[in-house]
Amino acid sequence: MGRVTQRLKVERRDGRTLRRIESVAVEEPLEIRVAALPDGGVPAGSSPLRPPSTTVTTTMRLPGDDFDLALGHLVAEGLVAGAEDVATMMHCTDTAPDGSPTFNVVEVTLAAGVSLRRPVTERTEVATSACGVCGSASVDDLLAVLPHRPSDDDVRVPLAAIHAGMAAMRERQKVFEATGGVHAAALLGPDGTVLAVREDIGRHNAVDKVLGWAAREGGLPLRGHVLLVSSRAGFEIAQKAAVAGVPVLACVSAATTLAVEVADRAGLTLLGFVREPRATALSHPERITD
Q1: d(CA 144, CA 135)
Q2: Does 278 belong to an annotated binding site?
Q3: Where can this protein be found (predicted)?
Q4: Does 198 count as an annotated binding residue?
Q5: Which of 47, 36, 177 is nearest to 111 (CA)?
Q6: Of 92, 131, 134, 251, catalytic
Q7: Dihedral of the CA atoms 201, 207, 209, 210 (nearest 10)?
Q8: Which residues lie below 8 Å from residue 237, measured CB to CB, with a gap of 6+?
Q9: pLDDT digits 0-9 by tens, 60-75
Q10: Which end of the chain has less Cβ packing within 10 Å, N or C?
Q11: What is the pLDDT of residue 43?
Q12: 273 belongs to an annotated ligand binding site
């Protein structure tokens, strides 16, 4: 499966020793850099030096869908509004010790005249795949800058459609099927169609990949949509859903207290333990119909 899995020799022990080959999910760093163009843009036909860039974050991720991950991270962290703020995205020519390209750096060049919407230094960090961006000042700060409020969305979603979406997401988790080692996120359209599924070793990265896809498709804000995650919902995932304007967030496992607080105050419907035929509504259950 290309760069996303690696075949390794292992020993399985269950009272006897069985030597075999198994697939393991690849984990590699991705550095996301941002560069700004001059207000006048780049003249047609010219070849100016590339503008200087700033590293926004470095995250451990499953290689693939890197542009979705980069754009989704910038959107979810309130650094850009959407794809319209971006001129280009490209892999930099970083190389491994053997000289082969690693494709582990993405440089995002902002559109002419666009600058990041907040200083990078406020919440720039080396992010682990498990913990996205930890340390937002408060839920109050998040709510004060939400570009799209889920509370304004009066969509109604049948629980059966969410269960069907979860099943469809599971069927499309090819790397999980091969390794058992990755999370997934999916986006359901207003008609219940599965629009995008992304996998990653980090649940936050999987969500960023889905949101980046939606941003590239011009789909923000995600009114009437449902965000599915194959994990628990913590503060960061609820934050990302709220920033993207998603009215319903459904997770396979539990939710944390801060996730519930974000969802309740932002007007986001949060479902936990979504396993057919059940689901637990932790906030704004009125959107879910039987």
Answers
A1: 16
A2: yes
A3: Cytoplasm
A4: no
A5: 36
A6: 131
A7: 140
A8: 132, 203, 204, 207, 229, 231, 249, 251, 259
A9: 999 999 999 999 999 9
A10: C
A11: 45
A12: yes
Read off the pLDDT band of 49 (50, 70, 90).
Answer: low
Report DSSP state, residue 83: G
Q: Is the pLDDT of residue 216 over 90?
A: yes
- The separation between CA 86 and the C-alpha centre of its own chain, rounded to angstroms, equals 18
Domains of the chain: 25-134 (no CATH), 150-289 (3.40.140.10)
Three-class SS of residue 286? Answer: helix
* CA–CA distance, 203 with 251 (Å, rounded to integer): 11
Among 178, 210, 181, CA closest to 197: 210
Residue 92 bears catalytic tag: no
Q: How far is CA 275 from the centre of its chain?
A: 22
Pairing of strands 157-158, 17-25: unpaired
Among 57, 63, 123, 115, CA closest to 86: 115
Sheet holding 28-35, edge to edge: 86-91, 105-110, 28-35, 53-61, 125-127
Q: What distance in Å separates the CA atoms of residue 246 and residue 227, rounded to the nearest whole number? A: 7
Q: Which residues pair with 198 in a beta bridge?
A: 185
C-alpha–C-alpha distance, residues 207 and 14, integer Å: 36
d(CA 103, CA 15): 42
